[in-house]
Amino acid sequence: MSNSQAPAVGIVMGSDSDWPVMREAAEALREFDVPFEADVVSAHRMPHEMISYGAEAAGRGLKAVIAGAGGAAHLPGMLASVTTLPVIGVPVPLKYLDGMDSLLSIVQMPAGVPVATVAVGAARNAGLLAVRMLAAHDPELADRMAAFQEDLRKQAHAKGERLRR
Ligand code: RP5
Which residue ranges have biased composition labelled Basic and acidic residues (predicted)? Predict the structure, then answer.
């Protein structure tokens, strides 16, 4: 899946069964008009393609990779080991262990090979974090992120107002 412009963010996941979670990252990128691609790149079932994806990501013009996986979730860390791009890991919760296995597999990286890990199932935050990464070099995108944050502030304030009445 992709949109018409050259993708700036790659969203990859270990299985299409991760998509119901990972689509939230795509939605966040769409809200900010950030072009992205999405694909299944399994660390265990297609290791050679996974390494190629990571090794070629920067050269293809991607600026960040969002990688989601569940269980023995090695995809984000393995991609981080073969690319210089920032990798954002999304622990996908599966039927057992409530996603703790996915979280620990992704977050506990060895020194020198960082993965920016979001909360279990928090693919939307992964998308928003990728937007912030791009916004660091894009003032127009930074303005839109600031407006988004101002909306969040207003919404939170309004919720408090209802309680204060
Ligand atoms: C992981 O195994 C995938 O990321 C997915 O979360 C999990 C289960 O995959 P399927 O058996 O549903 O394809 O590698």
Answer: 156-165
CA 163 from centre of chain: 34
- Closest atom, ligand 1, to C-alpha of 70: 6
Task: Read off the pLDDT of residues 31-70 as tens digits, 9 standing for 90 and up.
Answer: 999 999 999 999 999 999 999 999 999 999 999 999 999 9
Number of domains in the chain: 1
Specify the amino acid at residue 98. Answer: D
CATH code, 18: 3.40.50.1970
Complex ipTM over 0.90: yes
Pocket of ligand 1 (CB under 6 A): 13-15, 17-18, 42, 44, 69-71, 92, 94
